[in-house]
Amino acid sequence: MNNIDFIEDFKNLHIYDPKMDSLFKIVFGNKDKDRKEISKSLIEAVLPNEVKISDLNYENLEILPQIYKDDIRKITVDIYAIDEKNKEHYVIEMQIHEKKDIMGRSELSTSRILEHIYKPKDDIVEKERIYAINFIYFDMFPNDENYYHHFYLQDKNNSKNSSHFKDIIIIELKKFKEKYNLKKLQDEISQNNNAIDREIRRKLWFTFFSSINVVYHKPSNQNDNYWEFKKIQKKDKTIKNVYIKHEINEELYKLLIKENPIKMAIDCCIKLSEEEKKEFSKDVELELLEEELSELKRQKDEEISELKRQKDEMKILN
């Protein structure tokens, strides 16, 4: 599909949400050479400026410990790739619903990789580095207006001293969406003399992710571009309509395709095979269950909080 076709027909196009597990792996975890370019662009955009990827080799998504035990916690990630020339490892996760163990999972997966780097009886440890990159679509740090967080081990007394082994990066896409809009992106690119440096490429990627969403209610904004993906019959026999909406209009599309790998990613989100659509559909149903479980938990937490409040009031009265 060329650019003109897209711009003329974007309102009618079925664009699938790249944040869904199966599609995220298809777009960014495929060993196809063209798809590797997409992954390289995304990873470089997220990482510090000095990081430049030579090549990517995709690894097994289940990261096992050196010594396996039946009761060991299983760690499976969305993408695990290695740049062997630069001795850098990249673990990438996409998480839509709130999870409280993001940091713990990242520490565990990076520690297991580090365990493999430290081979038994090696006198010299290669300077390999591990990056755990987490894209999340919920507020993990509600009192922090920043959407990009970079964690690494650092000397409390001298910030120049730090561990070179592993970094954890968390990107709050929902917070980014609230902070950035088309006008702001256009202004920043204009101020940068229309050059796409790493910082702008980063924002273009984050815009791509946050502009396409699966929703479980009909969008109320008439300006939304959306289509009904499917109807899901729940256990109580009620029907839930599922929609996919996107905010990629002509102006935004022209910005996104300034980075060619993003254009390639958009194409991937349109041209799904029948088998890929089936996998995507399973993801949607799982996410609906996750959403309902999250809502039930929220309601339960509110009930517990209210009961505690009433109990405290009774103590005061007594």
Architecture overview:
The protein is an alpha+beta fold. The protein has one domain. It has helices at 3-9, 21-28, 33-46, 102-117, 173-179, 182-191, 198-210, 250-256, 260-268, 274-317, and strands at 57-58, 79-83, 88-95, 129-136, 148-154, 162-172, 212-215, 225-233, 239-246. Strand 2 (79-83) and strand 3 (88-95) form a beta hairpin. Helix 3 (33-46) packs across helix 7, helix 3 (33-46) packs across helix 9 and helix 5 (173-179) packs across helix 7 (198-210). The protein is globular. The termini are far apart.
In sequence order, what are the helices and strands, one letter per element? Answer: HHHEEEHEEEHHHEEEHHH
Compute the CA-based radius of gyration.
22 Å
Assign a percent range to the helix content.
40-55%
- Beta fraction of the residues? 15-25%
* Mean pLDDT across every amino acid position: 86
- Content-based structural category: alpha+beta
Number of domains: 1
Describe the secondary-structure layout.
Blueprint: H1 3-9, H2 21-28, H3 33-46, E1 57-58, E2 79-83, E3 88-95, H4 102-117, E4 129-136, E5 148-154, E6 162-172, H5 173-179, H6 182-191, H7 198-210, E7 212-215, E8 225-233, E9 239-246, H8 250-256, H9 260-268, H10 274-317
Parallel strand pairs: 3-4, 4-6
Antiparallel strand pairs: 1-2, 2-3, 5-6, 7-9, 8-9
Helix pairs in contact: 3-7, 3-9, 5-7
